[in-house]
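Please review the protein record below. Tell me whether the encoded fold seems credible here:
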Amino acid sequence: MDIERREVDIGVRNRRPTHPWLAGRRTGTVEHAAFALSDDITGWIGPSDDTSTLPSEAWTITHHGPDIVAVSNEPTIRLALARSGIGRVVLPTFAAACVPKLIQVSPIIKALTAEEWLVCHQDTRHDPAIRAALDALAIGLRAPA
């Protein structure tokens, strides 16, 4: 969905908006690490070939390509595979904190650390409903996991 074409009112992005018609508010930093059921699990879960490569997917392929034991083009399936003990998966730490049983099995992957920005169209950011949603989202995104 495209904020610039007003297909959506608010987005969460991993960098400051560069177009002058977009407004942004930095909400924090997103860190990633590898997660699994235990440290004993050594295989990795990666993206399938038809996936548009996210930075975490590219990192997994680059650093653990030969160790990939399962693939999926759907992040929720990769999470389910990790929860079933199939392998390690790279996740944002805030998301993994909400997943019972998974533990962090690697240090923070510095190469994947990115800013988090709330973004909306410049012309709508002061609309009462958009402003209320932006303020609520900013509070929620800054809250500890």
Remarks:
- The mean pLDDT is 90.
- The CA atoms of residues 50 and 73 lie 7 Å apart.
- The chain has four helices and eight strands.
- The helical segments are 55-64, 75-83, 93-96, 128-142.
